[in-house]
Design a protein that fits this description.
The chain is mainly α. The protein contains 9 helices and no strands.
Length: about 300
């Protein structure tokens, strides 16, 4: 009778252990591979979510068995790391392209400013020399009654020429020869449909069109940038006729276009800096993902 009671007790204990074991495994899995929402989103974007799920189950099993890391775990870590490295290199490539466009904008602004100042200086010197010379000649001719009329005519002509040269100087502030460059256009995809673009790698573009996991707004990162530019007056409402011409200049690739003013180039550079900061956020999230995996090992 005592032996039967012991067998029944052992059977009940074993049944309880089998019931508790799945929950224990789940707890171990959560403890050993717990990713932040931003890391989980990055894993989905770069396509390593199934690898992380498999790694999570192996980590939990290893913890229960008390064994060391297996070859499959090492392989999974390597595959995930390689995917993160590739995505990070693509992010660096996008940032380099943005930096290149901003550098060209700065150089273009410097060239236009130097040419404008040189042209204005030359015109101002010609205006001064012409007005001074003709003014002196007009004054000399005033001393004689026979040449007084000619002197007055020369005086009027000097005034007219000085006014014309002054107006020409004002026009030169917005003109001048432009270098025949082809500018990059890293802003253009932001004003088109959110499909894939050759300008941005697929993973980077998917990140920009995703909603931040921990944000209160449901707008994508790209949408938040557009809304911020709209609030700061970078361009009028997208459905307005004025917006089309402004966006065409912000995304244009022809550096010789004389409609590209200094102020518009400055706006374009500032918007590119905003895009660069947003893209850099993906690299930070990818680094966080690797850190969380390393801690969990």
């Amino acid at each position: 009778m005592r032996t039967r009671t012991r067998l029944i007790g052992n059977a009940l204990s074993l049944s309880a252990l089998l019931l508790v074991l799945p929950a224990f495994c789940t707890a171990q899995e959560t403890e050993h591979l717990k990713l932040s929402p931003s890391s989980q989103q990055a894993a989905r974007i770069i396509g390593v979510e199934p690898l992380l799920a498999r790694l999570s189950s192996l980590t939990a099993a290893k913890s229960l068995a008390g064994t060391g890391i297996s070859l499959e775990e090492l392989s999974l870590h390597q595959q995930i790391t390689e995917a993160v490295v590739v995505a990070s290199l693509e992010v660096d490539s996008v940032m380099d392209q943005i930096d290149n466009e901003r550098a060209q904008i700065v150089e273009l602004q410097s060239i236009l400013l130097a040419r404008r100042q040189r042209a204005i200086g030359t015109t101002n010197f010609a205006t001064l020399a012409l007005s001074t010379g003709l003014g002196a000649l007009s004054g000399v001719l005033q001393f004689s009654d026979t040449t007084k009329g000619v002197g007055n005519a020369i005086g009027f002509a000097a005034g007219g020429l000085s006014t014309g040269l002054s107006l020409h100087s004002v026009r030169q502030q917005h003109g001048g020869a432009r270098p025949a460059w082809v500018l990059p256009s890293m802003l253009a995809p932001f004003f088109s449909e959110p499909r894939e673009h050759s300008t941005y790698p697929a993973d980077t573009w998917a990140y920009l069109n995703s909603v931040p996991e921990e944000a209160a707004s449901q707008a994508s990162r790209r949408g938040q940038l557009l809304a911020g530019w709209r609030r700061s007056g970078r361009f009028p409402p997208l459905d307005s006729p004025q917006a089309k011409s402004k966006i065409a200049l912000l995304t244009g690739m022809d550096a010789a276009d004389k409609r590209l003013s200094m102020d518009l180039l400055s706006e374009r550079s500032a918007m590119l800096a905003d895009v660069r900061d947003e893209v850099a956020g993906m690299r930070r999230v990818l680094g966080k993902l690797l850190r969380e995996i390393r801690v969990s090992r």
